[in-house]
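@channel sequence for tomorrow's demo:
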Amino acid sequence: MKIALAGNPNSGKTTLFNAITGKIEHVGNWAGVTVEKKEGDVKQSLNPRNEDLIVVDLPGAYSMSPYTSEESITKDFVQNENPDVILNIVDSTNLSRSLFFTTQLLELGIPVVVALNKSDLTDKKGNTIDIPALSDALKCPVIQTVSTKSANNGLLELLNAVITVGKANKKQISPSIGVKKASTKEEFEKADKKRYAFVNNVVTEVERRKVSSEKQTMQDRADRIVAHKWLGIPIFAVIIWLVFSISQSWVGPLFADIFVGWIDKVYEGVASLLGENINPVVGALLLDGIIGGVGAVIGFLPLIMVLFFCLALLEDSGYMARVAIVFDRFFKKVGLSGRSIIPMIVGTGCGIPGVMATRTIKNERQRRTTAMLTPFMPCGAKLPIIALFAGVFFNDNSWVGTSMYFLGIIVIIISALIIRKITGDYSRSYFIMELPEYRWPSLKRASISVLMRAKAFIIKAGTIILVCNAVVQILQTFDWQLQVVAETAPETSILASIASPLAILFIPLGFGLWQFAAAAVTGFIAKENVVGTLAVCFSITNFIDVEELALVGGSAEVSAIFGISAVAALAYLVFNLFTPPCFAAIGAMRSEMESPKWLWGAVGFQLSMGYVLAFLVYQIGTLITTGTLGAGFIGGLIAVAIIVASVVYFMRKGSKSTQISAEMQSVKV
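structure tokens (generated this afternoon):
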């Protein structure tokens, strides 16, 4: 039996899907979290008769007349895939809005069961819904559910109703709304008016609200502060600073020290097992390349887990949806849709689902622009780089991570304005978003979310990063004659000879060393490789315990080991954050952009942006700290001037095309 889960965004649909199937799909407080259908079998505890049940979680939709691509997925599946039952998730706290979609589903002739979700919130508000009267009005079963609870949640009763309706295999008898099949715009509008009238009559009959929706609630008063057009930004800045302080300065390092201690014991244990008689090359490959390189990346896992735990709590509380509202007005002014904010927030976890979430944007230019700019938000793979440089060079200062997030937002806004000028597209967009209610975040859901991210991080470290570090170690160990390189002459290695020509390009950025060039290149495979490659190149297995390394922020010891200043380290951090993402994210960009021209333009733009920003950070920072310009200033200035001139040329070309199009349109008129 094929069961289609359909409902409005933020109705608890994916949470219900997880509760029914036992899966752990991402749950968010905004539209576009589910961007494609997901399938799962009903878990045994809810299926005691062992029926063959497949549940399909469809993207949220407000109507069967699709406006966005995810609504199209829902419409096409319901109409073309012939589900046996439609399980319609209705938000009981917002009955009047949810039932419009229900009326459209009832007209399809497919059996419908309504899950009246979030019933606990309805009871908490003192509101009541007459379930038998609602079921009678809709002519379908209506079951109260609380998908966030593990007991007394109504799910067993819901599945029994679904099985009963599905096995009856009777055509759905829709309520008498008076809607006829429409073929023109006017007929569609008349049909929608009849549906709204029907819904209003039903809600009036079955719902009793204790508090009038016209009165201002505590939630409304909180939004006046948190989502205020001016106060919202400093509040967001303080919250992000607190998140980084907790994860990288207060709680995170406590767990990291314990975790790194375990890694060091593994390193020492393997070293003792190998003994002194093992081949030095094999020993270096196993200890420095695999255990040391991977261990250096894994060492940052506790910091990342604490940070993601804090972000998961913020998202579950409903706050992150307010962040989208705060930044909406800035994004609209530079030609992006308000929906562009959502992929960027999703991208803070991983750039790949962030880029994929852009398919919810209908305007083609805005969708492609958002896919191009989403990787500028620091994702989970970039957090080890931030943590490394913040810890080693800046004594775990929380401002480093916080400033990178805000720099990402500023870069996105400026870049969007540039791309709008280049494309000449000045179409306006409108963004309507339902704000979820504030609630106490679930520690269980946050913990599950963090564990899933940790699992993905460890799998990545044990596959892609492990192989990459092993290759880096081999290339660093041998020269082109396949002779082992002497410890005093690492510059003769294969890796150094490949990376050295690239390092010349980085001299104006402050990190013109082959080790940093090699790490930047391997970062395109996976951004975590930057940390792993640096660990292999500098033979460092522990970046966490800075006291053991005798590294103090800004001290001579740092420059002696890494060969660069703190300002150059900040420039290197900026370069890695704002150049193209990993290959997997670029593949996602290719899929969503559907244009080779846009893809290569995006990669070129990202490379240029990272180079220019790193040049400005290093040269201006060096001028401020030393009173002189950094090395390679003239060469870097020429390169930056060429980049800027190219951008200005394309911007003027785009403006000219827009002017010609406007003149031609005026002639036609």
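heads up for whoever presents: The domain at 2-208 is CATH 3.40.50.300 (Rossmann fold).
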